[in-house]
Amino acid sequence: MGHRVCVVGAGVVGLSSAVCIQEKVPGIQVTVLSEKFSPHTTSDGAAGFWEPHILSDTPQELVRRWGDETWDHLKTLYLSPVAVDVGVMLLSGYHLHKQPQQDPTWASKVFGFRHLTKQDLQQFPGFSSGWFSTHLLCEGKKYLPWLMTKFKKAGGKVQQGKVTSLTELADHYDVVVNCCGIGARELVGDSTVKPVRGQVYRVNAPWVKHYMIAHDDPCYILPCANNVVLGGTAQKGNWNLSPHPTDSKDIWEGCCQLVPSLRNCKVDHEWVGLRPSRPVVRLERETVGRGASSLEVVHNYGHGGAGITIHWGCAQQVASLVQEALSLQQLKPKL
After folding, report:
1. 3-class state of residue 127 by DSSP
2. N or C: which end of the chain has fewer CB within 10 A?
3. Cβ neighbours of residue 234 under 8 Å, at least 6 residues apart?
4. Phi, psi torsion values for 193, nearest 5 degrees
5. Which residue in 39, 229, 17, 50 sits closest to 137, CA to CA?
């Protein structure tokens, strides 16, 4: 019988981890176990704009490596016939500042990064500097179903249910991969995991072709394939999953100040999601318990607002850690 691995969590981090494990470990049997699946995950609501965001003190060299590997993966998808089905597209636009800022660490990775000229800035009264660049965007609501289909075609199994302790899986799996996001606070008692609440509008405004991110306000406008995301909030410690009228008003006024024609657009819906923030992304292997009841666990959570931005790089590392855990398991007999 081949090795059995369980991935707990079915957002972009969980599904990408499951797919990468299948690709990297021959003969593996992978099960995705989750309480919620697409379209009911936080990843489904994300616009999926590639840019490191809300990663706190995670070492920059790791963010860069994970982000670069994810960019290359998404770029490959964009250049393939499946791009429309996957929800990957290119999006050009503007980062806007009221004071000059140092160039971002991602400037050399995106396409066509440049500083805005005085003529560019005439479009945006009140802003004195900024950048223009072209990014990849991967919409979760399309990408997650595509990942799930890929996972199932490779023999992956899916199980719906709530896990209250990772050790309850010890008798059924050789390795468990913890990708439960904000749920890690309860599942593994990680009190450093905190929500960063994001509230957005989805509106119908097909005339808006460029993204705009106003860093000082803050508000942002992100055109997607079928609608435009207007955001947003980043409220640490706020668990409220309902749209708040004050936030709605602030987002609407901020975005309409950037693009006045948005006042005439039709609102599709409002959405709230909780980004799983942590001081440092947790991506590591751990042995839980001792002897015959021990369990090899790979943790992969705490990606803040950068889940889609770094997911594939993290998933590649998860697959390597699963291989490592399986090798150690073979060398170390249970007593």
Report:
1. coil
2. N
3. 54, 196, 197, 198, 218, 275, 305
4. -80, 125
5. 50
Tokens of 241: 């999953």
3-state secondary structure of 67: helix
Q: Minimal CA–CA distance to 45: which of 279, 235, 227, 282? A: 227
In 3D, which of 22, 247, 35, 61 has the Cα closest to residue 147?
22
Task: Please calculate the CA angle 254-104-214 and round it to the nearest 5 degrees.
Answer: 5
Band of pLDDT at residue 244, cut at 50, 70 and 90: very high
Segment 221-248 shows an average pLDDT of 97
Distance (Å, whole) CA 157 – CA 29 = 8
Q: Are strands 282-288 and 266-277 parallel, antiparallel or unpaired?
A: unpaired
The answer to whether the CB of 67 falls within 8 A of the CB of 193 is: no
Helix, strand or coil, per DSSP, at residue 246: helix
Please report, as a single letter, which amino acid is at residue 222: L
Amino acid identity at 242: S
Q: What's the one-letter identity of residue 64? A: R
Question: Are 276 and 303 spatial neighbours (Cβ–Cβ below 8 Å)?
Answer: yes
Name the one residue in this structure whose structure tokens are 């995950």.
41
> Cβ(276)–Cβ(195) under 8 Å?
yes
DSSP SS3 for 180: coil
Let me know: does 138 contact 308? Beta carbons within 8 Å: yes
Residue 220 pairs in a beta bridge with 213, 231
Q: How confident is the model at residue 295 (pLDDT cuts 50, 70, 90)?
A: very high
Query: Whole-angstrom Cα distance, residue 230 to residue 241?
Result: 17
- Count of residues making up the chain: 335
* pLDDT class of 50 with cuts at 50, 70, 90: very high
The distance from CA 223 to its chain's CA centroid, rounded to whole angstroms, is 18
